[in-house]
């Protein structure tokens, strides 16, 4: 398939898949596997959630387990806090988590194919999709899910467990369900949408330090592997280096900033079994790979940790979400090779391909998408009164929450401060649009970039700038930081940086 | 040669900023003329907004403050100066380019020509202004005439002075088939020539048009840089728009003028202002080297060169060989060989011939047959026999040779040496026949070949020299060793080319041993010996098949296909019309070694563009730290912690704006003369320039803004 | 490229087929298979790690339950999940004087129980902690005090 056909096929398949999820969300109340009797989601929430899972974002404006006045049977639901039936968790959430992750791998590989010498097209989406799903994700998720069950993550369809007599003689509802089958794909596919509202802070989703470390490992696995896939596919393994090194250098920088304020201790918003260290480490990882799962409450973290979370989401390539992380890094490399590489006195080239006017155009537009879809809705959230309607203030705390919401949506990350409180038509529709554009515009543009490399003359001379050298990786890191900071610095200054100067320790 | 040129050019160099340039720069402030430079147009628009704020602050509720009117005037002024610096840079570059072009156009002044009309079989001379000549017209060129236009000689031989155009001081001999250039002068004799171009198609005109056209086509790299600039401008426009919105909805009370200051500081004004002049001054520098490029693209491509084909003669060696040693065969003395060389070269006006006479004379080998030379019979050089010589009548006497080689064109019997008469031609008892030529040619005509003949010849070739054999009365008497003289600096130039990762390939007609030795001496690893003109084409094709960018020079018609195929083809102006048409650059000085300079210039052009772009973007970091603390100072005082430079709150914005403006004129010299660099590998250049313009670009504004701030607060 | 609309129309069929097949495979078959294996291999974990105490199900070891009597260790209520089953060892120690005086058990004894149930000393990264339910069950078991018989 050419890039247009590949892209449109991926888009159409994804839209059909999201449409299926939309129907299941909307009608879960009358569909089977709903022992809690949750009603269907409102149309705007169903629309937003379908796009959220379909774009690998997993922003959640609901609590999966529901907030019910009377459990185990959710006869009286707290208004505005809908839950998901087992069917929705399986056939909408887990389904889209698999397909969006698969799509990510497919489009990345398709773009890389454009860079391979003698390649004739970008491949076939149907073939790529089927293979990535059945040969990579399903087997790996099977193993991962079984490990999680072993570590204590429930996997049952029998409904919530009722404890009639606790130690002190009270009643308690134990919120179980098909959790383990979701945790595997949500981390491995860098989706991040949890079964529970508290995500991986909830003990049933992340029972122990061991399961915590295993989830961190799963998050990093595919994005890191794809850096190697890049070098392997184009037949120049050395070219993995700039992508991998720069991604991990930026990741290390984020860790450094995150741990700068003090060595974090257990405090409000942090789970005891993870402690401060694994909570902060997780937060950096989950935004670095744009997973967006949480094992602590963001409100419990230092503003500098939040700053590094922004960093991960704004760069999207540290190493970024599975598939798109590599694509973004290639975008940054092309931009850096062009601007800085001119200073080598040769027409800039990458992998022996001369950078053309069209390449620069595609890359600049892809780079431009982000500020547009983050900044404009952030202003709109305040100017339309949508922010104050859900009780978000105009100080640095409030601004950080709104700015984070749209940054997370645009980066297809999914972590957020607002959670189910943002279940309003404005936030549902605006984030849905931002997520859709944030996902498919760059993918389309970068597939076009890959597509335009096909049949282009490849220089075998290697006389240009060596992109596989450590110094180039360093320059790449510098240029990424400058480009991203220049675009977002005033907003970071009004949010987490201001929070830091105001001396907030965990004041979100 | 080139020093003289640069002196010639420097006389006409304009004063840095003439009144004309000044007026031009002010005229360019017209917003309609700024449309081509969107970054600067935006700065000018913000200027008008701030002017409005200064005049009527009440018109900007929540965005302007009546008490800040004076500040608005200051900001507006700096914004206007920023735009003016940019137009000044444009005006300067264009005036410089025009001046260079005009100095060449002077050569093409309107002159009267003598057009030949052939009517009813008879010729008629019609005085015609050069403007009205057309391709194909016949013209008559007489002594002292200025040649009106490029033409090709049909009849006659004459000496022509091309020094004004090429800087070559010695007169050039023009014979049928040669090209003459408009603007040069006939020194002797008369020529009939056919006009080869229409008046506005001459090289000089093509060149001038490239400077003057304001719609000079942008090179691909220039277009791509423009896209980066537009992209960044779009990003910063969205960012400032969003910041303005945030300030209003969150009641952060940012002043519009400070937001505008931040906007202008972030916009890539430095590269936006200098981008047009970088390209234009690149062409100017090319003109100064007396090279006409048919497009800017070719110059940029030159920077990408991987392989450079160098003709040995003219590029690596000065173009003629010098006799350095006489080697006699057994039974003969060095003196015999020297005298024979002297005699055989007397009528040979080539540099080789002259050098043999000089060597013989210096060694005192002046033959007694001197007197009979005038009455001699001359065998002219023939390409088929590759020999030349002389047949002397008897008689003795002694006479010192006249100096130099001119004026020997007397009515003497001249004929070609006929090989079929070898051995059989009776040589009179008082006659002496001396023939010199290529060793294998001489070998065929002598009665017997000395035993060590081949050994000596081979030894000479192995040393990189050329052997020339001498025979006297069909007896091989000895060999003259001719040595190639390397051009000054050629070794350094080859080294520079190699350091930059470019592979030089030497093309020569010499035999392999000679070629190898010379190549080794100048440090070239690859060479093509015994090259035929079509070999160049094959090499270009072969290298291009391996995706290399090939640069080459050429002059003959045979070179045209290769020149057309090469990525960078530099034709010699002394070459044929076909070669010049096929090439994408022509060197008016016909100095083939300049291909190296063209490559360097191409690299410099790309580097300068990248350096100013990188510098411009890197600068923005410091400007954030200068303006962000002030932007929301009244409502978010905690952000003053970002004021790492300790700037005054009242002066920080002005300091950043002034730095942003003043960096433009400070970088004009860099834009005009280009980034200076030592020849080194691509990666080294890349890293070095990244250090200077990238990291330097981050640090310099911190220092500059602080210094300006200190200066302002002292006022 | 010219025929892109036509190609798309041809694509709708396969696209819908792929969407439906992936739905069944990922949304139904996969979780059901996992459920089957989980119930077979790890039935306790798969059903919520429920804790049996003297024959009765008293709760889940992974989910905090409310302890308000002064004789028990109390869980935290400011954590991210709201059901953090653990407290730091430090927290446990700070509760010892209250429990000791309310239940009449020596502080040494209580300290012993905390030490026995300590988990998570992850080199320098973790904070040692203890599971509140297990602490309290150990408390009941080991002290054998009549004061707890109501809760057995």
DSSP E strands of chain B, number: 23
Number of helical regions of chain A: 15
The run of helices and strands of chain A is HHHHEEHHHHHHEEHHHHH
> How far from one another are the termini of chain B?
53 Å
Largest interface: A-C, 81 and 75 residues
Shape of chain B: elongated
Number of helices of chain B: 23
Strand share of the residues of chain A?
under 5%
Query: pLDDT below 50 for ≥5 consecutive residues: which ranges of chain B?
Result: 1-15, 395-413, 419-424
Radius of gyration of chain A: 22 Å
Q: Outline the biggest β-sheet of chain A.
A: 2 strands, antiparallel
Derived from helix and strand composition plus strand pairing, the structural class of chain B reads alpha+beta
- Strand tally of chain A, please? 4
Radius of gyration of chain B: 34 Å
Query: Structural class from helices and strands of chain A?
Result: mainly alpha
Give the averaged pLDDT of chain A, no decimals: 91
Largest sheet of chain B: 7 strands, mixed
The low-confidence runs of chain A, each spanning 5 or more residues with pLDDT under 50, are none
Distance between the termini of chain A: 48 Å
Helix fraction of chain B?
A: 40-55%
* Mean pLDDT across residues of chain B: 83
Overview of this protein structure:
- The complex is a heterotrimer of chains A (508), B (715) and C (152).
- Chain A is mostly helical.
- Chain A has 15 helices and 4 strands.
- In chain A, a hairpin with a 2-residue loop joins strand 3 and strand 4 (353-354).
- Chain B is of the alpha+beta class.
- Chain B folds into 4 domains: 2-102 and 209-288 and 600-714, no CATH class; 112-145 and 150-196, Calcium-transporting ATPase, cytoplasmic transduction domain A, CATH 2.70.150; 295-316 and 487-599, Rossmann fold; 321-485, 3-Layer(aba) Sandwich (Calcium-transporting ATPase, cytoplasmic domain N).
- In chain B, the strands form 4 sheets. In chain B, strands 10-23-22-21-11-19-20 form a 7-stranded mixed β-sheet, with helices on both faces. Chain B has a 7-stranded mixed β-sheet with strand order 12-18-17-16-14-13-15, sandwiched between helices. In chain B, strands 2-1-3-9-4-7 form a 6-stranded antiparallel β-sheet, with no helix packed on it.
- The longest helix of chain B has 38 residues, at 594-631.
- The model of chain B is unreliable at 1-15, 395-413 and 419-424 (pLDDT under 50).
- Chain C has 2 domains: 4-44; 49-151, no CATH class.
- In chain C, 52% of the residues lie in helices and 11% in strands.
- In chain C, helix 3 packs antiparallel against helix 4.
- Chains in contact: A-B, A-C.
């Amino acid at each position: 398939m050419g890039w247009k056909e590949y892209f449109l096929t991926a888009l159409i398949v994804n839209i059909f898949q999201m449409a299926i999820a939309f129907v299941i969300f909307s009608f879960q109340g009358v569909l089977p596997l709903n022992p809690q009797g949750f009603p269907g989601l409102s149309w705007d929430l169903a629309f937003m959630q379908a796009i959220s899972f379909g774009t690998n974002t997993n922003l959640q404006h609901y609590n999966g387990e529901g907030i019910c006045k009377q459990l185990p049977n959710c006869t009286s639901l707290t208004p505005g806090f809908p839950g998901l039936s087992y069917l929705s968790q399986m056939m909408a959430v887990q389904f889209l988590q698999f397909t969006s992750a698969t799509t990510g791998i497919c489009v990345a590989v398709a773009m890389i194919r454009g860079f391979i010498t003698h390649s004739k097209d970008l491949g076939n989406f149907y073939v790529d999709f089927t293979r990535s799903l059945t040969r990579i994700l399903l087997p790996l998720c099977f193993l991962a899910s079984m490990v999680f069950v072993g570590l204590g993550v429930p996997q049952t369809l029998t409904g919530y467990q009722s404890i009639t007599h606790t130690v002190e003689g009270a009643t308690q509802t134990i919120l179980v369900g098909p959790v383990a089958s979701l945790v595997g794909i949500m981390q491995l596919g860098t989706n991040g949408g949890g079964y529970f509202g508290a995500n991986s802070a909830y003990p049933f989703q992340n029972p122990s330090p061991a399961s915590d470390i295993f989830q961190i490992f799963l998050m990093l696995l595919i994005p890191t592997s794809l850096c190697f896939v890049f070098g392997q596919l184009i037949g120049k393994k050395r070219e993995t280096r700039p992508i991998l090194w720069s991604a991990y250098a930026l990741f290390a920088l984020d860790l450094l900033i995150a741990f700068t304020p003090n060595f974090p201790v257990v405090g409000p918003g942090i789970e005891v079994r993870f402690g401060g260290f694994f909570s902060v480490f997780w937060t950096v990882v989950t935004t670095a790979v744009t997973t967006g799962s949480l094992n602590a409450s963001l409100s419990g973290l230092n503003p500098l940790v939040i700053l590094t979370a922004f960093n991960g989401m704004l760069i999207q390539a540290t190493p970024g979400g599975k598939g798109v992380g590599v694509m973004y890094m290639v975008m940054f490399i092309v931009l850096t090779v062009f601007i800085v590489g001119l200073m080598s006195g040769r027409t800039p080239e990458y992998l022996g391909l001369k950078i053309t006017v069209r390449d620069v155009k595609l890359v600049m537009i892809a780079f431009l998408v982000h500020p547009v879809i983050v900044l404009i809705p952030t202003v709109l959230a305040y100017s339309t009164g949508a922010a104050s309607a859900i009780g978000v203030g105009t100080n640095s705390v409030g601004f950080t929450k709104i700015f984070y919401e749209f940054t997370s949506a645009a980066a297809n990350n999914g972590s957020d401060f607002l959670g189910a409180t943002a279940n309003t038509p404005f936030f549902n529709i605006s984030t849905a649009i931002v997520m859709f554009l944030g996902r498919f515009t760059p993918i389309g543009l970068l597939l076009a970039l890959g597509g335009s490399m096909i049949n282009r003359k490849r220089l075998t001379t290697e006389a240009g700038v060596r992109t596989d050298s450590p110094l180039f990786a360093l320059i790449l890191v510098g240029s990424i930081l400058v480009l991203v900071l220049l675009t977002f610095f005033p907003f970071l200054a009004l949010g987490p940086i201001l929070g830091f100067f105001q001396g907030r320790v965990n004041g979100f | 040669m080139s020093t003289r040129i640069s002196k010639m050019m420097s006389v006409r160099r304009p004063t840095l900023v003439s009144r004309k340039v000044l007026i031009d720069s002010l005229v360019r402030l017209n917003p309609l003329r700024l449309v081509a430079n969107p970054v600067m147009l935006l700065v000018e628009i913000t200027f008008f907004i701030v002017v409005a704020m200064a005049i009527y602050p009440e018109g900007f509720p929540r965005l302007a403050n009546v008490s800040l009117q004076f500040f608005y005037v200051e900001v507006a002024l700096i914004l206007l100066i920023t735009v003016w610096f940019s137009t000044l840079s444009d005006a300067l570059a264009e005036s410089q380019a025009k001046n260079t072009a005009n100095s060449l156009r002077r050569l093409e002044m309107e002159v009267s020509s003598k057009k030949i009309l052939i009517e009813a079989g008879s010729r008629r001379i019609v005085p015609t202004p050069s403007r009205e000549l057309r391709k194909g017209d016949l013209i008559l060129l007489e002594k002292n005439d200025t040649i009106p236009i490029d033409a090709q000689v049909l009849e006659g031989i004459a000496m022509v002075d091309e020094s004004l155009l090429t800087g070559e001081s010695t007169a050039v001999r023009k014979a049928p088939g040669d090209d003459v250039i408009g603007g040069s002068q006939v020194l002797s004799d008369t020529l009939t020539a056919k006009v080869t171009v229409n008046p506005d198609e001459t090289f000089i005109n093509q060149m001038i048009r490239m400077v003057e056209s304001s719609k000079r086509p942008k090179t691909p790299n220039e277009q791509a840089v423009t896209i980066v600039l537009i992209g960044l401008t779009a990003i910063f426009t969205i960012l400032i728009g969003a910041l303005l919105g945030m300030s209003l909805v969150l009641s952060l009370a940012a002043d519009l003028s400070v937001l505008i200051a931040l906007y202008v500081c972030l916009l890539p004004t430095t590269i936006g202002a200098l981008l047009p002049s970088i390209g234009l001054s690149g062409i100017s520098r090319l003109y100064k080297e007396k090279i006409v490029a048919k497009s800017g693209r070719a110059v940029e491509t030159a920077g990408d060169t991987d392989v450079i084909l160098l003709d040995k003669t003219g590029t690596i060696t000065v173009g003629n060989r010098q006799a350095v040693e006489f080697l006699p065969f057994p039974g003969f003395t060095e003196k015999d060989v020297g005298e024979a060389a002297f005699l055989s070269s007397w009528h040979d006006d080539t540099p080789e011939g002259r050098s043999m006479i000089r060597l013989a004379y210096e060694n005192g080998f002046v033959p007694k047959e001197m007197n009979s030379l005038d009455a001699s019979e001359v065998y002219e050089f023939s390409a088929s026999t590759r020999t030349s010589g002389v047949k002397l009548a008897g008689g003795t006497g002694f006479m010192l040779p006249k100096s130099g080689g001119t004026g020997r064109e007397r009515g003497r019997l001249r004929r070609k040496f006929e090989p079929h008469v070898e051995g059989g031609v009776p040589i009179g008892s008082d006659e002496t026949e001396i023939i010199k030529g290529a060793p294998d040619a001489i070998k065929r005509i002598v009665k017997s070949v000395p035993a060590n003949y081949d050994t000596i010849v081979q030894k000479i070739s192995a040393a990189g020299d050329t052997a020339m054999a001498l025979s006297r009365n069909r007896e091989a008497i000895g060999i003259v060793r001719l040595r190639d003289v390397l051009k000054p600096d050629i070794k350094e130039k080859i080294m520079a080319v190699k350091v930059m990762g470019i592979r030089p390939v030497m093309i020569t007609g010499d035999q392999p041993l000679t070629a190898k030795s010379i190549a080794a001496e100048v440090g070239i690893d690859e060479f093509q010996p015994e090259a035929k003109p079509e070999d160049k084409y094959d090499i270009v094709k072969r290298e291009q098949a391996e995706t290399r960018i090939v640069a080459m020079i050429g002059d003959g018609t045979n070179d045209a296909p290769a020149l057309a195929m090469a990525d960078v083809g530099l034709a010699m102006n002394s070459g044929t019309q076909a070669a010049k048409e096929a090439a994408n650059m022509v060197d008016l000085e016909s100095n083939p070694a300049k291909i190296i300079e063209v490559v360097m210039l191409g690299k410099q052009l790309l580097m300068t563009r990248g350096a100013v772009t990188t510098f411009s973007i890197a600068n923005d970091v410091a400007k954030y730290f200068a303006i962000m603390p002030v932007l929301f100072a009244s409502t978010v005082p905690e952000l003053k912690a970002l004021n790492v430079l300790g700037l005054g709150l009242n002066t920080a914005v002005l300091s950043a704006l002034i730095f942003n403006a003043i960096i433009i004129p400070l970088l004009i010299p860099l834009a005009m003369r280009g980034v200076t660099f030592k020849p080194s590998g691509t990666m080294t250049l890349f890293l070095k320039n990244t250090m200077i313009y990238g990291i330097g670009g981050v640090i310099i504004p911190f220092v500059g803004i602080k210094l300006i701030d200190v200066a302002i607060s002292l006022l | 490229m010219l025929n892109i609309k036509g190609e798309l129309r041809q694509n709708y069929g396969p696209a819908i087929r792929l969407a439906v097949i992936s739905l069944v495979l990922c949304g139904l078959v996969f979780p059901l298979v996992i459920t089957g294996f989980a119930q077979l291999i790890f039935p306790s974990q798969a059903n919520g790690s429920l804790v049996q105490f003297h024959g009765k199900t008293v709760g889940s070891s992974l989910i905090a339950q409310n302890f308000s009597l002064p004789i028990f260790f109390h869980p935290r209520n400011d954590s991210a999940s709201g059901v953090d089953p653990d407290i730091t060892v430090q927290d446990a120690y700070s509760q010892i004087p209250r429990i000791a005086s309310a239940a009449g058990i020596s502080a040494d004894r209580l300290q012993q129980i905390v030490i026995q149930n300590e988990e998570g000393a992850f080199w320098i990264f973790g904070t040692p902690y203890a599971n509140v339910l297990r602490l309290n069950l150990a408390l009941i078991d080991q002290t054998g005090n009549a004061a707890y018989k109501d809760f057995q």
